[in-house]
């Protein structure tokens, strides 16, 4: 009997090709994103691994600062290692100097890297260098202060060649732009994307990137007979107390350096993979409802067929296996096609990221991608079909004598509606309690409430659909008359099916509204902070959020129209064992360019003093005049007096420190940089003239952008908008599946109601009226799902924003235009989704439908 049932399953699929295509496509859309996430992240990971395989090549041991913001390894320790080379087993010892730079292209504009590094290092002759990651392939090595080499890919992109004159701006320190000449071209041994790498001679690099007290990185090779791990352990012991060494420095073998670099990018890619998989999960969840809906309808339409099978000897298990076999075939087919579509999506993502400078060595489809797509497709489809399969197995043979397809009626909704109502009450309670406070615990309560609310909607939606569609249908009954009444009846005929179809839109639009509330609330906070907190006429910042050399402020001060110029710089230190950023105002009073409201003491901090915002003072129990220990990244402990407490300020941050303390926390001049330079103009100078003067003053620095307050707000808001657009684009997957679900349901419903439609056509219903009834039915379902999603999104988004007040979010801003647009869009989606099923229904031939039914 098993082989017979398998034949029945395969022939059933083959004889209903349209139904098969619709069902497979719903699986494809869900699995394709899973495949795309795995393929994209594994391809990028492998490309980065290829680059990092060449990091620290030939290096036996590397010593660097434990924190990348620290100045490096003290010269006295390097001298100690150099003097102990023989005892420790060191062959070569190389001091590496370098840092971020901006290089001008042949037109005098900054070379755009697309986010890839743009760095300088020291050139060493082959007999002195360790490894050969950068080979000189054209020209000669730099020997003077104004000479550089540059990697070939950057040179080609910038239109530079041996003999070209250009400018280099050090990303940190106080130096002015440097006029240089390209004397050599280098090649890197791996894919580089938009990477820019220049080299100065050793002494020049040391002068630019060190004050003589620290070395950025020290590389060593071992003498024959000493392993890398042996040399590492000896060097670690030679540096002093083990605990202190581990706090301040990293002593690693070359293999460990490469592994750490790979792990760092691996962590980033893991987060990115989780984001993609989260949206894939949303698509799969929506697809699950569609597949469940599809198989429920298929089972209902095959009642007579399955009952006849029971009558001729098929057992319940045989019938159940028959339905699950169909699901297995659909899952495998959908998974395979989803893998192909996922590869195409990943290829598009890789093409975009490559254009932005990220490395890529071509798409790579591994076993993990193949297994994930097929596995997810099969599992999701089998789980979605399990309940319909059980239902099919319970069909008694007597059903073969009936004329109509039967599904569980409304009476079976009572239990699930009651459970949904209870969960709904618990969800409301959790959302209210969570929204009345702020912080991580409250956010967790809101998350629990959101989960309960979604489950409550899933269970209660069938019962809710009947009154909602009845009311909505009543509005359309007057203009559409009998057609509107018929559409309303069809929409509520099977509330389970209508609710499952609508849930696809509900989930998608719920997420759209939640993200919309978060995005507009963040933008509202930013706008409020700038409006209330900024006094300056212009803010000068680095392009792409990069830092600027402190020397840029001196150039700005020479502008005739600039009256007040204040540099905002950041120092990194540890307070109470926690690493944090401290704001320093250099060259003026921060209160002259920003609104800082003092609560106690002073906010224009000088010397070694520190002011803190009121929340930090309250959380840590600090009071004015108290002394706090601040630990620099070099391990120095500094006693710092609290000289002021101020109202929380987005502009000032959590801590404000004086110039002297900043110098102690960032001891190496070449590591100091400006985050922003705030500028107020002199009375009588127009803002247009001041902008022109600032643009002229900062032009040689290549990376400076001049913004007024509105532009500054918009630049921050645009970042939020870009993130939201990305999220909306990913959520578009669920909306596409939602539209597919409505099409699928209506198409199968038309097949199911073929005889009924034929009877209506026979008694005089026009084709246009048939189409109109399908349009209205689809619109009712779509608007119902969208309204549920909007309400659910508001119920979750509002308390969620309230919990984020602890992190500076001021208040809830509801995007009413977005919500209104989604509801209107849902109605449009309903009509669009119904186009094909409506045309199919309108073409039903009355006599054939009656006879076949």
UniProtKB/TrEMBL annotation:
Major localization listed first in the record, in broad terms: membrane
An example Gene Ontology CC term for this record: plasma membrane
Membrane association type: Multi-pass membrane protein
Membrane-spanning residues: 271-295, 327-353, 365-387, 418-437, 443-464, 502-522, 727-751, 780-801, 813-836
Lineage, uppermost ranks: Bacteria, Bacillati, Actinomycetota, Actinomycetes, Mycobacteriales
InterPro entries referenced in this protein's UniProt entry, alphabetically: ABC3_permease_C, MacB_PCD, Macrolide_Exporter_MacB
Domain ABC3 transporter permease C-terminal intervals: 278-397, 730-844
GO molecular function terms listed in the Swiss-Prot or TrEMBL record: transmembrane transporter activity
Keywords for the protein's UniProt record, in alphabetical order: Cell membrane, Membrane, Transmembrane, Transmembrane helix
UniProt KW Membrane keyword: yes
Name by which UniProt lists this protein: ABC transporter permease
Cellular location(s): Cell membrane
Biological source species: Gordonia spumicola
Ranges where the MacB-like periplasmic core domain occurs: 21-237, 498-696
Family: Belongs to the ABC-4 integral membrane protein family.
